[in-house]
């Protein structure tokens, strides 16, 4: 049932030319799912040349015809939905129900971008002199290179691919080597839908080697990356050598602020759902819980109760509500964060250990009275460990929320309009959820500020990222 793993270069599905490869594992069982081919330098060069050729073809296709191709691909993904979702769970670990939600989101993104591509508008500017016409054009930027993280194998890939294709660009994407099958399935749907050769290439390999080689080429004109802050900074430096425009969707450390005027029981349940979704392996996951002192105890009790009810298991088991971490290496990181927090004076309310079963499973964990000096309050945990501390007033909590260099997402529970207005004005974040943890939709911009990156995916802003503005003046 697992997808056949291949490279896609110039319209052909194939193995790497130097027979280099690596195994892909199921994090819930440790079994090998398949063997992933690596692209050689010559394979990457072929992909680059094909991308230029594909761009020259695709940019000339009308937006209406491009939309038809993307819509056909969306329908093929729907036909293959159950198989793709199951493989997403196998390679990433998240429960099948979550995999299905993610895959549907990816299909929605593809459809939204396809339709929005028909609404790329320029404008006419009134001239200062007679006999002159002035127009502003929005044209596809050129061949795109994209690199994405493993935590959302469908959505991360689709945001790059759909945005590029809707704008009229070709794209070379390197998905994560840990979760490749979902990207391959998306690629097959697009090629089966009639996407011209070279418009989409999918390559795998040693990440640093692939990204450096692609960035050094004069062909790419746009780089889009989803991943960690250090790698994002490194890729910016590589892209600068060829003046490649970048979109950077980087890490965060999202504060969740719970004020005393809210429904604490309801807020705690929503916090548990938001935090432990995808085992906490979400860039916009709430990761620093700051609760007003008067309701701190009530919140901790309700939060722990919700966490302890989460059924952890293989994502393909129908009863599982949280799956494993993506790989064994993440277990030691969680243990280290918990140990450091306890040394800093925190207490473990629930969890704090790996589960005694095969696979990289970690118990949903809540830490209480975690000081801002603890490592977990300063480094994105990217796992099912939730640190909680209390605060006295709004000025204090805003200062604590803003003290880190990250600015991707933030959340708050309150019924007070004055507090809401102050949060909107003063929290330094690209995404803000008030009484909700839902901040990502196909039609809305998604992106951070400060060290969490720049540029947006989704919404008209996401399409704009793959366009260039040109001005034309003509005299007649």
User: Assembly state here?
Assistant: single chain
Query: Low-confidence spans: pLDDT under 50, at least 5 residues?
Result: none
Radius of gyration: 23 Å
**Biggest sheet overview:** 7 strands, mixed
What structural class do you assign from the helix and strand content?
Answer: alpha/beta
Number of strands: 22
CATH level 1 name of the largest domain: Alpha Beta
Number of H- or I-type helical stretches: 14
- Indicate the mean pLDDT: 97
The CATH architecture assignment of the largest domain turns out to be 3-Layer(aba) Sandwich
Q: Based on CA inertia axes, which overall geometry fits? A: globular
Query: Looking at CATH, which topology of the largest domain would you report?
Result: Aldehyde Dehydrogenase, Chain A, domain 1
**Can you list the strand order of the major beta sheet?**
14-15-16-13-12-18-19
List the helices and strands and how they pair.
Elements: E1 7-9, E2 12-14, E3 21-25, E4 32-37, H1 41-58, H2 63-79, H3 81-92, H4 96-116, E5 123-125, E6 132-140, E7 144-147, H5 155-167, E8 171-174, H6 181-192, E9 200-202, H7 207-216, E10 222-226, H8 229-240, E11 245-249, E12 254-258, H9 264-276, E13 286-292, H10 293-308, H11 329-343, E14 347-350, E15 365-368, E16 385-391, H12 394-402, E17 406-407, E18 409-413, H13 417-426, E19 431-434, E20 449-450, E21 453-454, H14 459-464, E22 467-475
Helix pairs in contact: 2-4, 2-5, 2-6, 3-4, 4-5, 9-10
